[in-house]
Amino acid sequence: xxxxxxAWGAGTSAYQIEGGWQADGKGPSIxxxxxxxKGRVFGEHxxxxxxxxxxxxxxxLECIQxxxxxxxxxxxxxxxxxxxxxxQHVNQKGVQYYNKVIDDLLACNVTPIVTxxxxxxxxxxxxxxxxxxxxxxxxxxxxxxxxxxxxGDRVKLWITINEPYVCAKFGHEDGVHAPxxxxxxxxxxxxxxxxxxxxxxxxxxxxxxxxPKQKGAVSLAVNSDWLEPLNPDCNxxxxxxxxxxxxxxxxxxxxxxxxxxxxxxxxSAIDSQSKKMGYTGSSRLPSFxxxxxxxxxxxxxxxxxxxxxxxxxxxxxxxxxxxxxxxKDAEEVLDPSWPICGVSWQAVVPLGxxxxxxxxxxxxxxxxxxxxxxxxxxxxxxxxxxxxRCAFYKDTIMEVGEAIEEDGVDVRGYFAWxxxxxxxxxxxxxxxxxxxxxxxxxxxxxxxxxxxxxxxAKIITKYKQ
Length: 465
Known about the structure:
Belongs to the glycosyl hydrolase 1 family. GO terms for molecular function: beta-galactosidase activity; glycosylceramidase activity. This protein has helices at 14-17, 30-35, 53-67, 78-81, 92-107, 123-126, 136-151, 164-172, 187-214, 235-257, 264-276, 350-363, 387-405, 451-463; strands at residues 7-11, 71-75, 111-117, 157-162, 217-223, 226-229, 302-305, 309-314, 330-333, 369-373, 411-417, 436-438, 447-449. It is α/β, with parallel strands linked by helices. The strands form three sheets. It has an eight-stranded parallel barrel, surrounded by six helices. Strands 6-8-9 form a three-stranded mixed beta sheet. It has one domain: Alpha-Beta Barrel (TIM Barrel). The protein starts with 6 loop residues before the first strand and ends with a helix.
């Protein structure tokens, strides 16, 4: 069912687990700033210490070995390596930390997959405009080149940017993620555009300068729910579903895998609405310049983060995943037959992942796919014997196997989110996705494996060659 070289992994990100926010010369990130502001995060939680992985990396490595992972996905804190965001000031303590993590993983026969940007922009660059500034493209490329140069002799799987949709919408449209901006219908499109440009420039830098010797692969990680029409016999619901997929998955995948530009349904809707809003000679959705590195073809694999599914109803309001109602007039609802796990937005729909994988195969020219995030949240009373999550992992991995075997999808790996309970952004430590529980009331941040972690380890043992 799974190929012998299938990647069995789990993931984390720097701000969510490392802590050490001021340790050894690290600069502040936008999430340091955001979480220190009152009322931004549940319970006034922050990532100042988090899982304290900066000091307890060896404990994380023990967890990785206990699961029997073949791969581990981590992110690099840009501000830990380059405190002001530029290569003019390199923090050698940060370099040493990531060198040790990478070397220790390889010594244990675990392959690292490294994300360059997982939401934590250096505050120094945010002060210059952040992702809204055109300068961010070359600033990111310089940072990426530094990482390729420093770690690329050992890292062969790279992700440039994690979930640009979430950064753009939650950080610049809704204001619920750092940097906390609320500029509806404008900033999200600009930020998304600059993230695509930054990704493309870094991919071209790798391809021309580092790939010949390092022989690695580079992509960006896109998040998407699976969407289905509420009424499959209603043409309006079917069309609204296609719009929904275009405005989420297509926003960042279509330019990279299909045409080098945004989906036509997205472009036409935003251009049309922009004219109605009085934009003359321009659209709120920027255009790609022919003078810049091409966007099309800048991914060596398809990195997918999937958590849930939705039904789509034409018109009728603005659902959680929409940018602005006037651009994509549809409503996304949960099917009442789908069970809900810890958080209200996450219905448990393993079959939705299989359907989404098939859609990606058919829509994006049958790419190699890594499922770089997929998980099940727990809220409220701690359940180490998390039976429902055990079933979730069994069912989901079975659907992935069916996608490979029955649908012919070229899935290369599966990464559970997350290795550890960690800082879940605006939800703080309230929401737990870990395969290991972390006791945040304990100064030693003791890690305890959930039953689901034990079950995942058994699944890996069963299929790992």
